[in-house]
Amino acid sequence: MQRITNTNLALLLVAGATLAGGCSSGPDAAATAKSMDRFNLETAKANDAIDQSVSTLKTLVQSPGDNLKSSYETFGKSLTALEEQAEVVRARAQEMKVRGEEFFKEWHEGSGTGLSADTQGKLNISYAKIKEQMMGAKDAFTPFLAELKDVHTLLGLDLTENGLQTAAPLVAKAQARAGDVKSRLTAVMDEVNAVRGLLAQKPAS
């Protein structure tokens, strides 16, 4: 249960940290942009891990008799990999949070970002969008992961054709939810890329 809690925390941290780590065009703007790049890279890997988990689950539920144990073990490994990748995303979000606490404070205290008023306005809009998108991703990811873990636990107790039938409703829910989770995470990455582009603009004259 602790692993689920940590994963949820990963998504919550991203919601508050992403733009905070990117709201400065001062001397460390390049480092901030690199931090955002690392976050997007790891989030893309999380999307890949979601694909892998769904794929191995599909193989598991379609496996006849003798292949069940092998397919179950493969699914378990992919589920562990997904949880571990979510932890990496949490770490990258925390990295941006630490960096951003200083940057975001300086921006709002008016110490000078070198950005035009128009660009700062766009950053504010993007900040709101990313917070909203990450909360949506968290709301979708939490039950998705719980359903995968429930399937794994249930089949661990009854790895038979009957067990597969019992788990079928959970399997269907997880498979249906996967696309929504991925689309929400992709939307966040797109918005982070947009912010990165704003940070790369020349300072206002």
Q: Can you tag this structure with a few keywords?
A:
205 residues; mainly alpha; 5 helices; 0% strand; elongated
Total discrete domains: 1
Query: What low-confidence regions span 5 or more consecutive residues with pLDDT below 50?
Result: 1-27
Strand content: under 5%
Main sheet characteristics: none
Query: How much is the average pLDDT?
Result: 76
Which word captures the global form? elongated
Q: What percent of the residues sit in helical stretches (DSSP H or I)? A: over 70%
Secondary-structure-derived class: mainly alpha
Give the ordered list of helices and strands: HHHHH
Oligomer: single chain
Q: From the alpha-carbon coordinates, what is the Rg to the nearest angstrom?
A: 20 Å
* Count of extended strands: 0
Number of helical regions: 5
- Cα(first) to Cα(last) distance is 53 Å
How would you summarize the topology of this molecule?
Elements: H1 2-17, H2 29-61, H3 68-108, H4 117-157, H5 161-199
What does the model show?
This protein is 83% helix and 0% strand. By secondary structure, the protein is mainly α. It has one domain. The chain is elongated and about 65 Å long.
Q: What is shown here, in short?
A:
With 205 residues, the chain is mainly alpha-helical.
